[in-house]
Design brief:
Layout: E1 2-8, H1 13-24, E2 31-40, E3 47-52, H2 55-62, E4 80-85, H3 87-101, E5 108-113, E6 123-125, E7 132-136, H4 149-165, H5 169-175, H6 194-200, H7 205-211, H8 217-237, E8 249-251, E9 257-259, E10 265-267, H9 271-281, E11 287-288, H10 296-306, H11 312-323, H12 329-345, H13 347-350, E12 355-356, E13 362-365, E14 372-373
Parallel strand pairs: 1-2, 1-5, 5-7, 8-14
Antiparallel strand pairs: 3-4, 6-7, 8-9, 9-10, 11-13, 12-13
Helix pairs in contact: 1-4, 4-8, 8-12, 9-10, 9-12, 10-11
Amino acid sequence: MKVHLIKSAEVEKDLFTQVVDLLRAVPGPIEFNCDPDLLVDFYEDELTRHFIPDAKDFETQVSYSMISEEADLKPRDFPLEQNFADWETIFEKCQRYRKEQQIPNDTFVLLLTNIPNKYNWFAALDETMPYNGFIHTDDWDYYIGCSAAFPVAYEVIALILQKSIFNGVKSIRELVHNQPIGCMNDMCVQKKEIILKLRTADICKSCMDQLRPHLPAPTIHHALTLMESLRVKMLFAQNFKQETPLSQLLIDKQNRLYLPDFGNIEIKLRPLEKALYFLFLKHPEGIYRSSLSDHRQTLYEIYASLSNMGDMSEMKTRIDEMVNALSSSADEKISRIKRVFTDAIGKDLANHYYIHGDVAEVKKIALDRQRVVWNENS
């Protein structure tokens, strides 16, 4: 089974990349293809302006609940004006892409977009061409305290499975759970109810009975394994597993970073960020920001082993900029390293893994180096 993921121009490339990485984290028969540089545009004459005066009106018109059991979630401000697209417009974008790229009719084309849709759904398939669909990437911070990439990736899997369960709008009305039970097919009329099915990442028996005749067992197993992987990662990212013992930090032969005891979560860093992080891993005593230039040659060597892009003079220029005490390059990379760990496993656990230290203090990684496992070539 093949799935083509595309995005509208407004969706951040980092979010799109994170969604794809999450979906590719578990090997199996579902193949996820993407082109992060191919952008789908929505034009002004394709959108309708909508004015929402207050929370009550918003909930009545588009099934949104202001009540949330989650802490530290983003509040909604009113009055609110927004542009939305009809479903027909969204699905037409998918079909146009399908024709332009000559994608077979039995291959999914799923559009990730932050353009609100007429019925305010998280995701939907096209009834006339059910291999076309969309997932709304915006507003997740009103419902769940982690990166939108997790629920968006979950909705991708849900659409793939729902294609084989539902047969049109009538079937959806008959088979969805209007009262949430923690199943993938909970209707979630009140959008905050999405929290329950994201935390369970499950399919109830009756829905599974509907699914089995239509999909091969390996495909179902792959989808369920992906959903469980996302569930575990979301729990860490939302600080629900902060009493968990610390994980080892594994650096494999390809210099990829994993936390094997936290659901084998991969920590995705760019080459320069990874070079800086590896330098600090090799110096448990810490390094003063002003002393980074003393480690210039080591950074040259680490970065050269990580990146095949550009010639050595270009690599050295990037390192020289990073170790320059008057440049903000190193501080920006330290900040992003912190954000990547925090997004992945929550702020409390992440505190042990990223680089700490105030401006005038030595900077270091707190993690006991006995928990760091290097590949054989290190």
